[in-house]
Every structure is written in C-alpha cells, then in structure tokens.
Amino acid sequence: MNPFNSKILLETARPPRGKRALDIGLILLAAPILLPLAVLIGIIIRLVSKGPILFQQERVGYLGEKFMCLKFRTMFVGADSVSHQGHLYQLISSDGPMIKMDEHGDSRIILFGRWLRSSGLDELPQLINVLRGEMSLVGPRPCLPYESDKYLPWQKDRFLAMPGLTGLWQVSGKNRTTFVEMMRLDIKYVGNKSLWLDLKIILKTIPVLMIQMWDSRKKRKSLLPTAQPKAALQLPVVNQSLFRNPGIVVADGDGNTKFTKYHDKTN
User: What does the alpha-carbon distance between residue 249 and residue 236 come to, in Å, rounded to a whole number?
Assistant: First the structure.
C-alpha cells in the first residue's frame, strides 16, 4: 500500500507550477554542449572498459514509486555491491559524514571513473529520466530500495518531492554532512520548494562541483605513497697521504688494492 495516497499529502507533494517547463527548457538550452560531451564520455568508457556504456539501477522516487535510474558506468561489470550496502548501513547508523567509498580508493572503479563521479558527469544520462518525468533537475537524490527500507517514518517525507540531479543537500555541504542532516535538508526542500529555490540551487551547483572536484583531487594525492628521500651519495674517503706521498694504486689478481709510493728515478 502506498503511504502517500492521502489527499493532504498529495497536495503537499504537488510540484511548483512551471517546474516541468523549467526542467525541459534548461535541458534544451544546454543540449548543444551536453550532447557532444555525453558522446565523448561514452567513447572513453567504451575504450577503457568492456561492457555497456550506461548503467541502470532501480531507485525509489516520487511518492515512493520505483523507476530505473540511468548513469554512465564507472565500475567494472559485475562489481560487488554488498560492500556498498554495508557502507551505506554504517552511514545511516552512525553520526559520521556521508563519505563515499571511493574517497579512500575503490578497486571497482574503471579508469577515469573517479573523475566522472567527482565531477557529477556520470549522472548526465539522468537527463533522460528528467525528460521521462521520473526526475527533476532539482530535488532529493533518488535512493536505493534497501536504503529506503531503513528510513524512519519522518524520513520518508523526502519522497514528497520529485527526485533530482542536484538539491539543497548537495549545495549545503553534501559529503561533510551526516545522514540525518541530509534527511533534514531534503525535507526542508520539500516544505519550501519553489521555482526560485530551484534556480538558486542550480546556480550554486556548478561552483560546488568545482570545489568537490578539488577536494577529491587533494584526497587522492594524500593517498599516494610518500616518496622517500634519496640517500646522499657516499663518496669514497680519500687517503690524505696520497697528496703528501705521490704514488699509484695497484690491484692484485684478487681485486685487492694497495698503495705504492712513487719514486722519481730521475733524481
């Protein structure tokens, strides 16, 4: 049974007037740039990793309805998902920041995958979800079914808004916030959603992504092994007597050397 069948809840969940037009208008405006970029990303994925270019995964969206969410594939085909599930449960139960698994290195990720994820470009195919009416440009991130199963009743209010590519949480700290803080920001958006708020979030998203990419780059550098300083070149100790007593160094058959004084026979 859908818990959002109440007329009062459905009225609260109604998207702002003009939201759909804003989504489609902005997508059409950015299409000349985004389409060639998407093609280029698809070619790169095809060259560096065997398997499909796109990855689709069931997510929970508006009013708890499930849909297939699209992304560019950034992991090897058949990558383990159990570890992510455990990591997510730990974030939900702890009071720690929402740090992604790949922040500390993730062997499941393909070449250029980390860059796609930190820049948000792996989510470009979700514009198709927006055109289908399953998502919006702005809204809470669509969650996984096993994540929604762990939600408390008050946390499910985040489903009263269309899921989005960016949102209030993403521009308010994202990976520096806790799971509960994320929920509160999502529900704050639900209670205050408007076209003006959507526009402010969209304008904030690009600078936030730039900062996110910079932070991700610094963290990757910190994970690299520190180069050990090269040992100083050890020069042989020169016998000072060589300068006082000119002579020659003679090696015998066993490779041993000895100093022989030089005698000037001209005297």
Answer: 14
